[in-house]
Amino acid sequence: MWNPFKKEKEQKIEKEQKEYPIIDISLEDLKRAIHEYGMQLPNEVPLSVIVTDDLTIDYNLLAPTIKGIPNKTYYMSKETYEIFEEEEKHLAVDFDNVQRAVDSYIQQTKELPVIHGDPYKRVSYHKLEKLNLLNYRPHQEFYITDEEYLITNKKP
């Protein structure tokens, strides 16, 4: 079917998809750019819109902010927004899986899934596994923060 607006729409899309140069960007610069991008988003749009299904960062959305496409692949947790370099991709996956399990555990039991008596609030994989919320034990230790019960791999 003929659509007189089709060509106009295609031209608009082409303008939005400018060619950006491939650039070298540090992890810290990328974090700053993501923060800047997030500040520009409307309140109802979560920052996770820049994370693809395989946890890579959608550089097409970020390119106008950083004026290029990074030459390295970075990964980002959709749950905690932690950013990782390519060799740490498994951490992005672990962060998402453990955070979802922790959130579900808290919702079901109204308690934190921490090791009994641990002053650092280390996540108890055993408690998460008992409720079938986690089907493997990450090699990384995670701790629950006071900030919205987000997890971190940094010991407090």
Number of domain units: 2
List low-pLDDT spans: 11-15
**Multimeric organization:** single chain
* Helical content class: 25-40%
Strand fraction equals 5-15%
Query: What is the terminal separation in angstroms?
Result: 62 Å
Major sheet: order of its strands? 1-2
Main beta sheet: 2 strands, parallel
**Annotation field: number of helices:** 5
General form: elongated
What structural category do the secondary elements indicate?
Answer: mainly alpha
Number of strands: 6
Radius of gyration: 20 Å
Plain-language structure description:
- There is one protein chain.
- Helices cover 38% and strands 9% of the residues.
- The protein is elongated and about 55 Å long.
- It is mainly α.
- Residues 11-15 have low confidence and may be disordered.
- The strands form three sheets. Strands 1-2 form a two-stranded parallel sheet. A two-stranded antiparallel ribbon has the order 3-4.
Primary descriptors:
mainly alpha, two-stranded parallel ribbon, two-stranded antiparallel sheet, 38% helix
Put the structure in a nutshell.
The protein is mainly alpha-helical and 156 residues long.
Task: Summarize the topology.
Elements: H1 6-16, E1 22-23, H2 27-40, H3 59-66, E2 69-70, E3 74-76, E4 83-85, H4 89-109, H5 125-130, E5 143-144, E6 151-152
Parallel strand pairs: 1-2
Antiparallel strand pairs: 3-4, 5-6
